[in-house]
Amino acid sequence: MSPTPTLHLPAVSVFYDPSLFPHSVWAALENDPRSSNIIYATAAKIAKAGASLDPCNLWVVCWAVGQGSEVMFVLSCTKGPIDDYPIFIYTPLPRDILTDDFLYPPILSMVRAIQAHVPPERVFSVFALDAVSDKFASTWTAETSIRLADQPVYYHAKLLCCTKATIKDIAQEEHPSVEMRPARDADASKLARLCHGFSSMSEPFVLTEQQAFYEASTLIRNGEAWIYATDQPGHDTEITCMVAVTRTTDSVSAITKVFTSSNWRSHRHAQRLVHFVCARLLQEKESVVLYVAHNNQAAEKVYRRVKFVAHSSARDESELADSWKELGFDREVVQLGHW
Q: What range(s) does the N-acetyltransferase domain occupy (predicted)?
């Protein structure tokens, strides 16, 4: 009987302070700043702030075997303004090489690193390219005996981007009763209703009204919320649509929330506001990115009208957008966070 071949696991490094990332890690994030934005933006913000570090935040970097400082994967386990974020995983590698056999050693290395540094209930979900999420989930279950949730696919989406070269000129309506602008403190209560409405469609990450107000206030304080406001005769100003932009690096901004009040759908307020926000962001950024669920054709139609296009990491320059998946773990065992 032939001996079982030895499994060579790639080396990993664990960081609690992103300012200590070696240059090769920042270079890997910058290699594809659109795909890495979900990790890059938070790490860069914390590194730049130089404030006291939250011990709940950590990053795991997985290095290529025998390749010195070549980065294969960056994993983040961080906290957001409301609660813990999912496990996010980014790779600078092209998606078409991410086979099951290729992924197992680096994913196992990262899983064991996470096990050594955070309690297992902290890992409530993982969000990454489809193949990476699938392999992380199966490996995590094998190593911890924590199974997936009964309905494990929390989010399944494609990554789209918009640039100065792609954005479409859209004639914005000029009407004294319509205003598109950053949200202000006085808008907090109305904005909170939209935040609450968005979360009610984002199971299992549903906010209470109090949490939604806190989120709205935080977005306003950070200058991350944009609104479409309309005045109707005999009524108070109504905020009909919101756009949140919460992840920003030097070259990329990410739209992380778009929501229109149910009373104002089919009026193209979202299209106008998304275009308005993108046009302003692209005065300073090279691109704007967002995720759109595979089954949300109405939203994708809005983004395509603004001329968002597929973002692909495939070597063959495929026109198919990268597909990302969030898989959740057994909610009777884990502590659900929020993003």
A: 178-339
